[in-house]
Write a structure and sequence with these properties.
The protein has helices spanning 3-32, 35-52, 57-69, 73-81. It has 82 residues and is an all-alpha fold.
């Protein structure tokens, strides 16, 4: 097994471990009625789901947000330098 194969296996296992840990924390915070902590856990799960499982989503999200705000590279450079 090469290092790239080991890295791929390890990254997959870490994703599942983080999901399991956050799911357990979600259950514990819901049982304790710690609503603010539960929202934090949900944000963590969303972050893992969006950016760790599908890292290309960061680029897609940035392009979508740039299009919505009407800020292209030229417009951003104009704001920064003038």
């Amino acid at each position: 097994m090469s290092l790239s194969g080991l890295y791929t296996w390890f990254s997959q296992e870490v994703k599942w471990a983080l999901f399991i840990i956050l799911l357990i924390l979600l259950i514990v915070t819901a049982f304790k009625r710690a609503w603010i902590a539960m929202v934090g856990v949900l944000v963590g799960m969303a972050f893992i789901g969006m950016f760790i499982v599908k890292p290309d989503l960061i680029i897609t999200l940035a392009q979508w947000l740039t299009g919505k705000l009407g800020m292209g590279f030229v417009h951003t450079a104009t704001i920064l330098f003038f």
